Fold this protein.
Amino acid sequence: MTEIQKYFNNSFIQPKVKQLTNNHPKQFVFFANSHIYYNNSVHNHLNFIIYSWLGKKIKYIKDEDKKNLEYFVNSAFFNRQPITVFGDITDRLQKEFWNRIFNIDVAMFQCTYLYHSTIRNSQIQEHIEYYSKAFNTCRENNVVPTVMMPSEKLVDGKWVEKDYYYLRNLFTDIGNKGDALVIPVGVAYHNFRKKYPDTPLLNDWDNNHPNQLGTLLTSYTIFSAYYNIDPTGIDYRYNWDISDEQLNAIQTEAYNACKEYYLDK
Amino acid sequence: MPSTFNPALPKGGTGPISKDTIPIKYTTNDFIKPKRKTLDDMHPKQIAYFATSHIYYNNSIHNHLKWLTYTWLNQSEDFEGRQWVKHGDRKPFNPQDESYIEEYYGRVWFWGNSQPIMWHGDLTERLSGKFGPADWPVDVALFQCNYLYNKRTILDINEHKEYYMNAFEQCRQNNVEPTVFMHAERIKRKNEIGDHEHLGRDYTYLRNLWTDIANLGDALVIPWGVCVHNWYEKYPEIGILNPWCGNHPNNLGTILMNYTIFYTYYRVDPRSIDYTYIWDDIDKDTLLKLQTIAKESVDEYFA
């Protein structure tokens, strides 16, 4: 069995890392692409969710007070490139961000390069090496590495079911080989669309990038994976027209995906 | 039950502006004139963006500029490039089809949370290296950073000028034309109270500041700030910036920004191009308003 074939097996590889070593991270950096920055960016939404969860009554933030903001997510974005384009990330993990004095706790890597029908085994091995190198660079800088599992695609109106197994096993393997926490966004999308087949999570014009509900599902899944908190009841839906029922469904599936994926955490 | 969360806070607000005196040369209404008025290559195909949320909000200007360019080219009878047909209709762009990206391509390097330009570090690899499936070299780089909107001391400005000069020089060393994005004044936020007298003065500061930065580094300015100013002078009732932050573009603002960059680079009258993305609520009259303001503002700035 080749390396690729083993990922299509519906017997799932189990994640080694099931939670962050720091279970209350405050400073994050995302290395990601358009799947994260569409719809005004998941890094913003994670910030907002955290503050909503904490019940902070945030008034206008004065410049001098920004240094005391505890929770902060920053992002570096690129388009459709493999993770390799970021090169040496030491500088970006170490340096003080604008107005920030705290160290980064967690880095998240998201990349869709390995999701192509033409992907070859050698490319997978090459990218596993890149990921492992990035994860090690994180650890050298006291930053906990995490990696996001993408969701399967919708092609000609049908979900590519076998890709769910491929992506879940592939990214679990990447996480396991580099001792990184995997964020099971792919599991959340898969389960959500099984349960609510009439509620789309992707833009209808490309069937690829998340729509507003999809962006919220991604954000709440990251939140649940990092904090191990059930997000149901957090009243955050940005300024979008999303009903209470939809919000509850999103939050429930985000949390359940983490419970399912991490199993005996 | 509506959300009680205010999306403007903490992200989205620009924060208080430094009280230090703005250099006097940036306070004059007799605006500094731009030295460079066009690109050397007025038909760029590969563009690298070093930018922030002002560019990536609303599904990103690098996508919109690419699709606008294809819409324009498809309207020309002698265009032999790629065309798409869906359900029997000829479409000006197809976001699903990425095979055209070897021709026109936007390479993006975004930083979240408004980092100053220095955060991009050494640009050489990003200007000269191969970038995914795009084999062509980068023609133009666009630098957009709103750090100097809040930080207005002479120390901040001089420090950042050095970063810009360094970035422009790296562009030229890699045969890339540098361009810089003029930030716009923000509008009063929804339900915001307090003193807003400074908002009227921002336009003068921002226009002079970015013209000065570009002149020092022989870069082309994208006069977004002039467009926003002229839009609100002419159409104060039609918002182009998000009301909750008064700062980032809404959908209309993103379309205006797109046409502004397009006309600045290509100098092709945009008023007959039918590109509004998938935002069908932008009617033809509004589109014409956006295209006209973009063209007239760019013409005014470079006159």
